[in-house]
Each structure stands twice: as structure tokens, then as C-alpha cells.
Specification:
Blueprint lengths: L4 H6 L10 H21 L7 E14 L5 E12 L6 H8 L15 H8 E11 L5 E9 L3 E4 L4 E2 L5 E9 L1 H4 L6 H11 L1 H5 L6 E6 L2 E4 H8 L5 E7 L2 E11 L7 E6 L2 E7 L11 E3 L2 E10 L1 H6 L24 H15 L1 H21 L5 H6 L13 H23 L11 H40 L11 H8 L4 E2 L22 E4 L19 E6 L14 E8 L17 H14 L17 E6 L4 H9 L3 E2 L5 E6 L6 E6 L1 H18 L6
Parallel strand pairs: 1-8, 12-15, 19-20, 20-23
Antiparallel strand pairs: 1-2, 2-7, 3-4, 3-7, 4-5, 4-6, 8-9, 10-11, 11-15, 12-13, 14-15, 16-17, 17-18, 18-19, 21-22, 22-23
Helix pairs in contact: 2-4, 13-14, 14-18
Length: 679
């Protein structure tokens, strides 16, 4: 059977995201050439060199950071390896050559060159058996295959090879790294296995105009400590895992990397696979991130030709069910080795995580106590440095899972399981009921936590800001009840009328900052806008006797700006908030109706409740005394009753300090019971 270069290229896939693969293949070929030369000469691999030069176009292009950079046109890879001997030359000209199969090579690397570069040229000096040096120069292109520049000629140049890859195809050039450091970092990452192996790696330098980076220096900069390798058997297949700790400031993540033929092929995050493995780890030398590099014949045999993946299933049926391992089989075998290697750091992180979670729940989110009682410890390990926001999300996710599990169990809890004894059933039922009780407590904590937040917001709003100004009236109004809404609006769910009186939660209709003419509970046609108006109707008025409570009540709430001045007692509605509220109440009473527009009989008998929320300035105190109101025991408000039939009103004037103090006192028992820190 015959094969053509054009046909093989057409069937060879190279994603644009893998634009650097052709360069990496050329570099690995140079390493292999140096290994051959080292074996012949007896000189160590470390005594040899590889130079990678970045070739840039002359036209300057504006980059995103405001600098001008030359677009990359290609690369020149030069080594002092064995060169294109007759064996290497024959192998290069043979598609799917098996010459370097023992190294995991597939003869596909040079095809990657033609996918990404239009101009490929090789210049190589190699030795003959009689020590004569010859020079072989040829081009490589998809139209004419391998084109030699004549026969090899004698040369006095040193042994080695240069591979010129030019004419970077735009689709690949756009996806490639642009800076010298990024290019060098990619090469190091791809060839890292060579750097950590016992025999070492040639001295490799990346050159870009007048700048250069020695990869040994970059390797030292990246490494947190020496790498450690160990062998393991997965099924019947031998593997080697190399444990590497990188410096934490490199923004790397914890990964498991699969290598073939000395190249990095596939990497995947270890996040969530190793309990205690967080974004930044720590040991006695400082902080680091972790990476495992896995090699073995099994991976070499199953790597796809382009070395961008493996012919390995992600999951199979049963562990080691056959000769074909899956990625899940491999992970299950590797993770315990990772745990063992990182044992001390993982234990430290797990302990710090537990402290972080416990502190957060105790001081800020007691609703998640049920999570700690019913979730496996290994499922609840977080980075000790995680933010409150992210920790809240993690705990909420676990709480949701717990609620979902209990919901599923609830459908079957009343039915004993097959072969379940009475004692087992009682234990299962008790465990279920205890979990339900904890979840109910969590819901209560959530509700009380909301109220605590509202109290904190109110406390912040009633004091001066950094500019010495007090909050506007509408800011506090919006906190207590949404403005320009009624109880029929969806947004009204945000109301916090419990700050004033818990009984205000029970109403038939409530309006906030709406004109009287727009309210269905009164026929008054004025455009006056009370801050808050509420009508409460009893659900079953027919059951009320003659001496029972009246069938309804009307409430008016007036909110003023903190520390407002300029009140004039008894002057008019604009100057006196008590008189203003009584006027609103009188208008409501005269046109009192149900929410469906039915007039309420004997409306003058409907009790009225007035709440004025304002700081007790001297002017407001005069108004309270004018209406014969009594000062409260704590001195933070006034209360009394206005007996005139036009009003028939119970009046309560509450300072902002008094409002906040009263609300906190009403909730103190809840806060203490649920473990909140002192308010």
C-alpha cells in the first residue's frame, strides 16, 4: 500500500489552539538527536545545546498594551546533535516511519510543520563511519515533498542541525504566544519531563532579537523544590509519576499531566479530586502549586498521531475490567500517590479549612450549622483564603444537596425497607427527623439573619456619614417599606415593617407613598401622599360580638429625616408631623372602604394607629406635649390617645434610636439562641 504526503496532510488535524505543537516537535527531535550523539560520544546530554530563535516580520504591528511588536513569522531551531545521518534521512522521507518508535515517535511531527508553516528548510551536518563530516540541505513542502539541494557535500562546520520554520500561517500565528517569556514558558511546560528526569536536558536557550532566556534559569525560577519520581502499576501496566512543586507566584493551577514520548499531551485540573488540595499549598519552604506528570508505555502506545490527546476512554465498566485502562482508572490510582506526596500540606490545609468554615458559620452564617452536622468532612474542604462570598456559595450548594436528599428520603421514610428490622427502621426514622429538625432551624436562622442585616443597615443609616450629613428620608423609608408600592405589588415583599411593630405584617391592604386618591380603601380624592397607610380587616367579622374588637383598623406611618429641625407644634400639617398624620387618618376614616370599594359602616369607630418615626428634637417634643402624649420609660419616644371622634387615634412617636433599640431587644433572644455574636 502506498501513501502520499498530500493525502496524509489532508487527514492530519492541527487545531489553531495548538499552534506551538510544530515548534515543540522540532525541539523534541533536537533532544533525540542530541541523545543519539551523546550515546556515541560518551559526553553527557547536558554538554549539548539547543538554540530556538524567534523570527519576526519586519512590519511593526500595534499590540493591545500600546507597544509595537513584530508579528511572529517563524522559528529557527539549532542543535549540535547527531544530524541527518543516512538512517535519519531515510526515516524522514518515510511516512509513518518506525525508526524512533522506541522513543514514542510516530513520524507525524514533520507533518505538523507543514500544517502551520509554508516554508520549511533543514541544514544538517552529520558524520560518516570514517569520521568524515557531510552537509545535507533540503526543503520540505506539501507540493514537492522532500527536495534536496543536491547531494551531501563535505563540510568543515561543526556537527548539528538547523530547522527553519517560516511563513507562519495566520490562523496559527494569531493563536500563538507573542512574547519571549510566554514562548519560553510554553516550551518549558511541554518539555518539563526532560528537565526533571535523571539524565537531564541539553542547555536550551530561546532568543528573540537582542533578548534571550536560558530555560535552565526559567526552570529554577519555576521550581519550588526538587521533583520526585516514583513508579506505580495500574492494572498490569507500568507508569511513572513525577511530583513537581512550582512556585506559587506563577499563577499555575494544580494539575495531572499525561505525557507521551517525553511530551506533554494532556493536562487536567486536580481541583475537587484531592481533599485539601487548594489553589495555593504551603510547606516549610513557602507556598507552591502542584503538578503530577505521568508517563508510561500505555500512554505512548495510545497517544493520537498529532499528540493532542489519547485513544483512551474517560470511564469504563469496573476497575481494571480488562486490559484497556480508562482515564478514571488512572486517576483512581494516581490520586492516592498525590495524597501521600502532599500529606503534610494537605493536613495543614484541611485543618485551616475547618477553622475558616467554623469561624464563618459562627460569626456570619449560623444557618449552615446543619451542613456541618450532616455533610461528610471531605466534601467540605475549602481554600482557607477563600472570600466570604465564595464560601457562602459553597455552603449554600451543600445545604441544597442536603435538602434535596431529605426530600427524596421523605417519600419513603414511612415505609420500612425490605428485610429492615424494627430497630433499624427506628434508627433510620430518628436520623431523618433529626436532619429535618436541623434544616428547619437553618430556615429560621436564615430568616433571623435577614433581620439582623436590616438592623445593621438601619443603624448605619441614622448616623452622619463622612461628610457630616444624615441619610435622606427616602433612604430610610425604602429600607422599611418600598416606596410608591402597594401590598399588591411583587416588590412589596421587601417590606420590613416589623422594625416598627410586628402586628403591621397583618394587613388587608397597605400603600407606601401613594396619593389618597389612588387608594381603594378610601374615597378621599386629595393628592396627599402619606408615607405608609394600612387597612386591617378581620377575616371573619360575623363572629365578632357587640363587645368584641372593632371590625377593622387604620394605620398611618410618617417617617422623617434623621435629626430634622424646623417643626412648629400645632401650626399646620406641613410643620407638625403629628398633626399631619392625624389629618391623613381623618381623611381615610371619612371615606373608609374595604379594598374592594365597599364602604365600611360606622367608620368613626374604627381605631386608628399613628406612628411618627423621627428624632426627638426640641420642636418635636413640644408637639408631643401639645397632644398630651406621655414620655416612654426609656425616654426615646412618646405615646398616647387622641379621643376626638374625628381621630380616635393611638399615637406613638418613636425616635430612630428608640426604633433601633426596641427592634434589637425584641430579637436579642433569637440572636443569642442561634449563636450570633453580640450585636
Amino acid at each position: 500500500m502506498e501513501s502520499t504526503l498530500q493525502g496524509r496532510l489532508r487527514n492530519t488535524h492541527l487545531p489553531a489552539s495548538k499552534a506551538m505543537i510544530p515548534l515543540y516537535e522540532a525541539i523534541v527531535n533536537s533532544i533525540h538527536a542530541i541523545e543519539e550523539q551523546a550515546a556515541l560520544s560518551g559526553r553527557p546530554v547536558r554538554d549539548h545545546t539547543i538554540a530556538i530563535t524567534v523570527i519576526r516580520e519586519e512590519t511593526l504591528l500595534s499590540s493591545t498594551d500600546g507597544r509595537s511588536e513584530d508579528r511572529i513569522d517563524g522559528f529557527l531551531i539549532e542543535d549540535n546533535g547527531i544530524g541527518f545521518t543516512e538512517e535519519n534521512w531515510s526515516s524522514f522521507k518515510t511516512l509513518d516511519s518506525l525508526y524512533k518508535a522506541q522513543k514514542g515517535s510516530r513520524g507525524i511531527g514533520r507533518l505538523m510543520w507543514l500544517k502551520a508553516f509554508r516554508d520549511v528548510r533543514i541544514d544538517s551536518v552529520f558524520g560518516m563511519s570514517d569520521a568524515t563530516l557531510l552537509r545535507r540541505i533540503f526543503t520540505f513542502n506539501p507540493d514537492r515533498d522532500v527536495v534536496p539541494d543536491g547531494d551531501p557535500q563535505k563540510s568543515s562546520a561543526p556537527r548539528g542541525t538547523s530547522v527553519s520554520l517560516k511563513g507562519f500561517v495566520r490562523a496559527y500565528a494569531d493563536q500563538s504566544p507573542k512574547t519571549l517569556r510566554a514562548i519560553a514558558g510554553g516550551i518549558l511546560e511541554h518539555c518539563l519531563w526532560y528537565f526533571v528526569r535523571a539524565e537531564g536536558v541539553p542547555m536550551m536557550r530561546v532568543i528573540d532579537n537582542a533578548e534571550s532566556i536560558l530555560l535552565d534559569d526559567l526552570f529554577d525560577e519555576h521550581m519550588h523544590s526538587d521533583a520526585r519520581a516514583e513508579e506505580l502499576l495500574i492494572g498490569e501496566h507500568p507508569f511513572e509519576i513525577t511530583h513537581v512543586k512550582f512556585r506559587a507566584n506563577l499563577n499555575k493551577s494544580n494539575t495531572l499531566n499525561y505525557c507521551a514520548a517525553g511530551r506533554l499531551v494532556k493536562g487536567e485540573s486536580l481541583k475537587g479530586r484531592v481533599p485539601g488540595l487548594t489553589s495555593t499549598m504551603c510547606d516549610d519552604q513557602g507556598t507552591f502549586t502542584y503538578a503530577a506528570y505521568l508517563t508510561g508505555p500505555y500512554l505512548d502506545e495510545r497517544v493520537v498521531e498529532q499528540r493532542i490527546g489519547f485513544h483512551i476512554e474517560d470511564e469504563g465498566v469496573g476497575l481494571f475490567s480488562g486490559a484497556e485502562l480508562t482515564f478514571q482508572d488512572i486517576r483512581d490510582a494516581v490520586v492516592p500517590r498525590v495524597k501521600s506526596f502532599l500529606e503534610a500540606s494537605l493536613r495543614q490545609n484541611i485543618e485551616a479549612s475547618a477553622e475558616r468554615i467554623d469561624s464563618f458559620i459562627q460569626t456570619k452564617a449560623p444557618r449552615y450549622k446543619a451542613v456541618l452536622r450532616h455533610v461528610d468532612t471531605e466534601e467540605l474542604i475549602v481554600d482557607p483564603n477563600t472570600s466570604d462570598r465564595d464560601l457562602d456559595i459553597v455552603l449554600h450548594r451543600q445545604l441544597y444537596k442536603l435538602e434535596e436528599r431529605i426530600l427524596e428520603e421523605g417519600h419513603d421514610i414511612m415505609v420500612p425497607l425490605k428485610d429492615e428490622t424494627e430497630v433499624d427502621y427506628q434508627n433510620r426514622l430518628e436520623k431523618y427527623l433529626n436532619t429535618v429538625a436541623d434544616l428547619n432551624e437553618s430556615s429560621l436562622v436564615d430568616y433571623v439573619t435577614h433581620r439582623r442585616i436590616i438592623l445593621d443597615l438601619l443603624g448605619a443609616a441614622i448616623y452622619q456619614d463622612d461628610d457630616g450629613k444624615f441619610a435622606r428620608e427616602d433612604k430610610i423609608h425604602e429600607l422599611i417599606v418600598p416606596m410608591r408600592k402597594t401590598s399588591e405589588d411583587y416588590e412589596f415583599r421587601r417590606e420590613n415593617l416589623w422594625l416598627i411593630d410586628e402586628r403591621l405584617a397583618f394587613h388587608d391592604f397597605l400603600a407606601s407613598d401613594k396619593p389618597l386618591s389612588a387608594m381603594p380603601i378610601t374615597s378621599d380624592s386629595s393628592g396627599k401622599e402619606p408615607d405608609v397607610v394600612a387597612l386591617r380587616m378581620y377575616d371573619m367579622p360575623v363572629l365578632l360580638g357587640e363587645k368584641g374588637p372593632p371590625p377593622a383598623s387604620l394605620t398611618v406611618i410618617e417617617i422623617k429625616k434623621p435629626m430634622r429641625k424646623g417643626y412648629i407644634a400645632g401650626k399646620d400639617e406641613k410643620s407638625d408631623p403629628i398633626l399631619q398624620s392625624l389629618d391623613y387618618l381623618s381623611r381615610l376614616r371619612n371615606g373608609a372602604a374595604t379594598r374592594r370599594g365597599r364602604k365600611i359602616p360606622n367608620a368613626e369607630q374604627i381605631p386608628g394607629f399613628i406612628y411618627v418615626i423621627a428624632d426627638l428634637t426640641d420642636d418635636l417634643v413640644q408637639s408631643c406635649e401639645l397632644f398630651n402624649l406621655t414620655k416612654t420609660a426609656d425616654g426615646m419616644g412618646y405615646f398616647g390617645h387622641h379621643p376626638k371622634p374625628a381621630y380616635n387615634a393611638y399615637i406613638q412617636v418613636i425616635s430612630f434610636d428608640g426604633l433601633l433599640k426596641s427592634a434589637k431587644e425584641r430579637h436579642r433572644a433569637f440572636f443569642e439562641k442561634l449563636g450570633f455574636p453580640p450585636h
